[in-house]
Automatic annotation (TrEMBL):
Domain of life: Bacteria
Cross-referenced InterPro entries: Fosfomycin_Res_Enzymes, Glyas_Bleomycin-R_OHBP_Dase, Glyas_Fos-R_dOase_dom, VOC_core
Species of the source: Solirubrobacter deserti
Coiled coil start-end: none
High-level lineage: Bacteria, Bacillati, Actinomycetota, Thermoleophilia, Solirubrobacterales
Annotated protein name in UniProt: VOC family protein
Ranges for domain VOC: 9-129
Length: 147
């Protein structure tokens, strides 16, 4: 079987949320994105170059890791300093931060980041490809799979 395209890239990710205004505020504050569009029950967020996340107020309750679907949403940044900047914003927002800070993806890896939740309990990761040191919370297993 041949590939349909030479490269696939994520265009944007759509997330169901319970409170649109709260979620827009969270994603703008933590990630620094701007609102690129808004309608009745939805908002588009992104940076100057692209749409990154769409938020849809179509849910009740909280994200469930026990149901099939999204495990976590991961964003790569350029440096450990960028991860630290996001970590500071997450801590200021008082949200749940797994592993209490920046950790490697696995034992001996130099890539790693932070793992946290948005206001609806959707699990998020911000990571960088190099420069992370310390003990990996899950040993040789991928840290991102165990939060």
């Amino acid at each position: 079987m041949t590939a349909l395209a030479t490269t696939f890239a994520t265009g944007h990710v759509g997330l169901n949320v319970t409170d649109l205004d709260r979620s827009v505020g969270f994603y703008r504050r933590v990630f620094g994105w701007t609102e690129r569009g808004r309608g009745d029950g939805y908002a588009f967020l992104g940076d100057d170059a692209r749409l990154i996340v769409t938020l849809w107020q179509q849910s009740a309750g909280e994200f469930s890791a026990a149901a099939p679907g999204l495990h976590h949403l991961s964003f790569q940044v350029d440096s450990v300093e960028d991860v630290q900047a996001v970590e500071a914003r997450v801590r200021e927002a008082g949200l749940h931060l797994y592993h209490d800070g920046i950790v490697p993806h696995a034992e001996g890896a130099s890539s790693g980041g932070i793992f946290f939740e948005d206001p609806d309990g959707i699990r998020l990761e911000v990571f960088t490809g190099a420069g992370v040191h310390g003990e990996a919370p899950a040993g040789e297993a991928p840290t991102c799979g165990f939060f």
